Amino acid sequence: MEGTNPLKNLYLADPETAKSVEEKIKNKIALTKEQALIFTDEVIWALSEDRAFGSALVEGYISLFKNANPDKIHTYKKLVRKAGETGPTLGRIMAEHLVSVLLHGDETLLGSFLGAVYSMRKKGTYTLAEPLEAVTILLDKGEIKACSVYLEILESLFAKNLTYGECRHFAHLLPKAVLSFPPLKRTWQAEQLYRIILEDYQLADPFLEGMEKGLSFLLQDALKEFVSIGLEKIRKEKQSGIKYLSLDSRSGVDTLMSLQTAVPLSGVRLQLTRYVRAKTGTLFSICPLSQMPKNMRQEVLNEHGGKPFVFSCVKFIYLPDEISLFGSFDENRDLYKCLVRLEAGYHEFNSYEFDFERALHYSGCLKDGYAPERGREPQKDCSDLEKFFELFAVKDLAADLFNIFEQGRLRVISMEKYPGLVRISYPLLFREAGRIWKDENPEPLLFLLYMRIALGKDPGAPFSADVETIRLADSIYGLFEKTMEEKRSIEKCA
């Protein structure tokens, strides 16, 4: 279509939409002649049926033109056209939600999507909106497997002989339930919901009630075992089985307690809050990581990966929503306590009151306020700690060393003031250090310093390193011990 505007026909039919489209694709998408023809013809037709349908189709095609191959664009055209000929509402719904299926899925997922849509359509178009919105959300998050299980649930459930009221109920309940499952657990929690529905769709409500009461804290195999026991009970006596699934019976609660190893923060929050208040004299709010401000959360999560950790700022201490690192409930509960005990030490022993000028006074050649290696003044618009690290040629190494020395300072003080805390909590840290040494190949000198100074543990076997590294670690450890005898301030660690 050289020399002519590829959207000419759309301008003639609907100038407002054409102008909006041109702004969206300008300098981003170069439409071929065939793409422009398909786009304008289909959008003009959809607009003539319903304006909302036409707008949804515009967005759908633009997304596909950016990211999809011609075969998927052709599939989109065929399926949306077929749906739109049935009715503009169905056409709009397909135009909106088919996009993510084509962008993120394969032929198998497309088949599952169409099967679910067919099942729901037989009950009425009113059943489609909320369930398919959840499909788009899951796929846009990259949760392909969870979405596949969810689509199987939809197809199976709506193929059953449901009343109008039941259809409306499940069209609202199922997407809400599946989206409420934690991302890391979503696939296998949805699989157990699917098992329940295959047995009897009327069990879905009591099962989801049980999930809210505590079943959600079971790990994969434990939840599968709980459901298997529940299904056996239901086959023998339905009402007894329903009470079991919903945790309305003693047997259900007892089985949950015997199978549960994960510990939710909600179950220990009050105890942890009281501990921190008693230790620091300050009322901190103990919050789950999911409530951390978004601009902080992703950076912190990326740094720590999937391992449990603690993070604090101002008046908040953030902890994992639940901990399931170990194989027993008691060990995971103790890890919560360990993390909070250690974090409270930073506040109790003034780690956050670091004074840049005092640190310079202690720091010999740095006391003039600049780094000879870098030849420039430190930044002004940052914390005192960040300002201090800026003085060094390799500031990340300086920060790592500082953290080792500061954790060592807290250990030394805690050994005198709270020997029980060290005796109870530090073995957990030593166990994790062993895993890191085995699995993550850390830098030997820093790791040996962490073991000796931060944990107060002579590494020994299997934490072996070359003779020179061990000698240097011993020398630095000796300097640390001597310094802590003189003055135990955070600035001395710097």
Give a summary of the structure in a few sentences.
With 494 residues, this protein is mostly helical. Helix content is 69%, strand content 3%.
Write structural notes for this entry.
The chain has helices at 8-13, 15-25, 33-49, 51-67, 70-86, 88-104, 107-123, 129-140, 144-158, 164-180, 186-199, 204-213, 220-236, 238-245, 250-259, 269-280, 294-304, 329-348, 356-362, 384-389, 395-417, 419-439, 444-454, 467-486, 490-493; strands at residues 263-264, 285-288, 311-313, 316-319, 322-323. It has 25 helices and 5 strands. The strands form 2 sheets. It has a 3-stranded mixed beta sheet, with helices on one face. The chain is mainly alpha-helical. The longest helix has 23 residues, at 395-417.
The largest beta-sheet arranges its strands as 2-4-3
Secondary-structure-derived class:
mainly alpha
Q: Could you report the average pLDDT, rounded to the nearest whole number?
A: 89
**Helical coverage, percent range:** 55-70%
Could you tell me how far the N terminus lies from the C terminus, measured between alpha carbons in angstroms? 68 Å
Radius of gyration: 30 Å
- Unreliable sequence segments: none
Number of helices: 25
Element order: H for helix, E for strand: HHHHHHHHHHHHHHHEHEHEEEHHHHHHHH
What portion of the residues fall into strands of 2 or more residues? under 5%
- Overall shape: it is globular
What keyword list fits this structure?
single chain, two-stranded antiparallel sheet, 3 domains, mainly alpha, 25 helices, 494 residues, 5 strands, three-stranded mixed β-sheet, 69% helix
